[in-house]
Design brief:
Helix content: 10-25%
CATH superfamily: PK beta-barrel domain-like
CATH class: Mainly Beta
Largest sheet: 8 strands, mixed
Number of strands: 13
Structural class: alpha+beta
Strand order of the largest sheet: 2-1-6-5-11-8-7-13
CATH topology: M1 Pyruvate Kinase, Domain 3
Distance between the termini: 36 Å
Number of domains: 1
Shape: globular
Radius of gyration: 15 Å
Protein name: MOSC domain-containing protein YiiM
Order of helices and strands: EEEEHEHEEEHHEEEEE
InterPro entries: MoCF_Sase_C, MOSC_domain, Pyrv_Knase-like_insert_dom_sf
Number of helices: 4
Pfam families: MOSC
GO molecular function: catalytic activity; molybdenum ion binding; pyridoxal phosphate binding
Organism: Glaciihabitans tibetensis
C-alpha cells in the first residue's frame, strides 16, 4: 500500500505576524497567492524583501512545511504545530525540501503551485522559541547547510484547499535543479 501525500492544515493571516492561524479553508489565486493573506500579491510582500526592491516578482506567495518537521523539532525540545512557523500549507508524506526547483504541486481539487525555493527563517523564529533557528538551519555530514523551515511557491492555478485534500507531485522535465533560498 503506498502512502498518499496530503494536506494536514491550511492557514492565512491578513497581517504580517510570525505565525498564521489555521483555518478551515484557503483559496489560492493564480499569480497572487493566498486570498486574504498578507503575503499575497504579484510583487514581493515580505517586509524585508520589499524594502530592498518593492517591484520584485513575488516568489514567496505560498509557504509550505512538512508536518514531519514538527516531530523532529519535538525531539530537540521544541513545541511547534501547524501555522506556528508562518506556513500556509502543512503537508504530510512529502520530503518538500528535497524537491527540485520548478516542481509542481497539485493541491486539492484544482490548485497548482510551482516551487520556487527554500525558506530561510529570519531571527524572528528565535523570538517564537529561543534556539529554534539553529534547529531549523543545520549542516549535513559534509558540512552543507540544510534549511528545514519549508519551501516557497507561486500559484499557477487557482482553487480551494482544505485539510485532508490530496497532493500530487509533478517533477520538472530535464535536469533537476536543487532548491536555493528565495
Amino acid at each position: 500500500m503506498s502512502v498518499v501525500p496530503t494536506v494536514v492544515s491550511v492557514g492565512r493571516d491578513d497581517r504580517h505576524r510570525f505565525s498564521k492561524p489555521p483555518v478551515s479553508e484557503i483559496t489560492l489565486v493564480a499569480g497572487i497567492g493566498i486570498e486574504g493573506d498578507a503575503h499575497a500579491g504579484p510583487t514581493v510582500q515580505h517586509r524585508y524583501l520589499k524594502k530592498k526592491d518593492p517591484t520584485a516578482r513575488n516568489l514567496t506567495q505560498v509557504h509550505l512545511i512538512a508536518v514531519e518537521l514538527f516531530a523532529d523539532l519535538a525531539i530537540e525540545g521544541f513545541t511547534v504545530g501547524p501555522g506556528d512557523l508562518g506556513e500556509n500549507v502543512t503537508t504530510s508524506d512529502i520530503d518538500l525540501i528535497t524537491l527540485p526547483t520548478g516542481t509542481l504541486l497539485h493541491l486539492g481539487p484544482s490548485a497548482v503551485v510551482e516551487i520556487t525555493g527554500l525558506r530561510s527563517p529570519c531571527s524572528l523564529i528565535n523570538r517564537f522559541q529561543s534556539g529554534l533557528m539553529k534547529a531549523c538551519i543545520t549542516r549535513d555530514t559534509g558540512g552543507r547547510i540544510i534549511r528545514k523551515a519549508g519551501i516557497m511557491a507561486i500559484v499557477l492555478a487557482s482553487g480551494p484547499l482544505r485539510a485532508g485534500d490530496g497532493v500530487r507531485i509533478e517533477l520538472p522535465a530535464g535536469l533537476h535543479v536543487p532548491l536555493g533560498v528565495v
